[in-house]
Specification:
mainly alpha, Four Helix Bundle (Hemerythrin (Met), subunit A)
Amino acid sequence: MNHDKPKAVTLAQFTAMSVPTVLLILWTMFAPELGGALELGRTKLTIWATTFLLVPALAFWLFRTMNQAIANLGYLFWTGAWVVFLLHAYWAIFIIFDGIADTFVQQGTLIAGGNFFLLAVWTLDVALIWLLPARFQSFWVQLIARLLAFLIFALTLVVLRGGAIQILGFIFTGILVAGALVRAIVQVPAARVET
């Protein structure tokens, strides 16, 4: 059975993703009101929130062949993380920096280019997942988008940051590398197709 597209998403599955996503968005918007630089706080917290949502998104995607419910959760969390990443991109590009050109000046071509490329690939992947029929889904587009997200987040959080966000980066990277190793070592049974 092909699990490259969400199918028959249940209310429980949607709720499992939407409740933490909404709570994280509320946290990113209101926690900075308690002190510190408001807009910078929102920009930083949206990356934290995206990271929190990427862990289940990528972990469920690794094991999506087990059954459609796991696949659905992977796609839902991937979409929720994308929404929060869009908020981050908005705050970073238009509030912290003065547009796209200034983002490249302030962050440098490599970091800004990587972030914009991730945003474009992630947006394309989410659009393909939710808008196209299953026969048009591409494992390779999904794999590339997820590998790119993992690599950019892991490198940024672990190598380019320090403090608590770096600890989150190590946790993020460790959980997903362990999941990938389990997936590679253990034969994960594919769901049986009933005829």
